[in-house]
Amino acid sequence: MTYQIQTYNQIAEAGLSLFEDSYTINSAESPDAILLRSHSLHDQAINDSVKAIARAGAGTNNIPLEDCTSKGIVVFNTPGANANAVKELVLSCLIASARNLFDAIHWTNSLEGTANVAGQVEANKKAFIGHEISGKKLGVIGLGNIGSIVANDALALDMDVMAYDPFVSVDVAWTISRNVQRVHNLEELLFACDYISIHVPLSEKTTGFIDAKAFRAMKKGIHFINFARGELVDEQALTEALADGTVGKYITDFPNDHLFGVENVVAIPHLGASTTESEENCAVMAARQLKVFLETGNIRNSVNLPNVSLPLTSPGRLTIMHKNIPNMVGQFSTLLAEREFNIADMLNRSRGEWAYTMIDIDNKLSEEHETDILNRLQKIEGVVKVRHISNGWQ
Ligand SMILES: NC(=O)c1ccc[n+]([C@@H]2O[C@H](COP(=O)([O-])OP(=O)(O)OC[C@H]3O[C@@H](n4cnc5c(N)ncnc54)[C@H](O)[C@@H]3O)[C@@H](O)[C@H]2O)c1
Ligand SMILES: O=C(O)[C@H](O)COP(=O)(O)O
GO MF terms on file (predicted)? Predict the structure, then answer.
């Protein structure tokens, strides 16, 4: 079996090199899978041949998830693979903004070509007196892979840490220090904190999450750090909060036209995950997940389907993505039994409105049988994608 992968953005070689000879990269018009980072697929037709999309990174807002799901495309991301890179940059921005480093460096650079630089520096450095973060209160919104380690490490820097995440996962909750004060009401955090860092995914529900009401609840002069997504913040409200001094500094990884020239905005060119280590982690994890899915049908770290894992030991496997409605598995097994296929193993899992079934069969399928069985399964109402994976070593 050969597979074709289409990539977008710069994907680290450490990941690409995992695709052996049975894979071709960027040379086919009918790719089996897409591997990408921030490239947006929203305004682009996705070929019917695509069975999976892997986002080498965390945010999947660049992928039309609902569309993909209804076409039977499994979408993956790489949870946690770039979290450390983002955390380190958040903490450095926290300190840099507390110490006025951005403005101070900008001013120092402006002295080029003027007389007595050393004298000017000593005379004017008082304009950049900063604060220490030790003893100040940091509010972390979103306690996932990034927020949780930002919170823990800010404690290690002697900050008081408050956090808000009504949906925190049990796995992550186990890793969070009990000294992180969890609040159930966002306003409580906004009201109390000197610094805020936001780490929630962008979705329809979180667009404009930090709005005028949220800014009104904040302490005067707060430093607000956004390494999550620009659209989480209502830009009009932000501009007003910067103008009236509610926000003392807005540090964002997501510059746009409107933010140019706005005082007290520090714009970073989306560098949160841009370290060699993080790019490799993400590419390796995404490539592995794609390979496992294409070669066995097993699913790890999908954002639209459940995790499934079943060792592939029989001659062939049928994978079926379908609506999560009654009697689907019954119809599949009846159809197979009618054609005298014996089921060796089977697994069915659902996630919300969708489900995924893997059926291992004892029979090796001829091309003719394969086409027939796939067509018949595909015709069952509620089925969106069917594949047959023949077991290479059987
Ligand atoms: N700047 C960068 O380069 C960069 C890198 C990685 C991730 N990101 C962004 O950061 C986001 C978070 O990344 P992550 O790896 O921590 O993701 P994650 O999925 O591990 O964590 C997200 C957390 O947000 C929480 N959450 C969701 N809705 C919320 C709400 N309304 N209020 C409070 N909490 C809420 C979830 O419960 C979860 O714990 C990503 O979705 C992505 O947009 C940016
Ligand atoms: O969501 C993410 O993982 C980040 O925004 C990183 O995006 P990038 O891979 O394009 O740097």
Answer: NAD binding; phosphoglycerate dehydrogenase activity
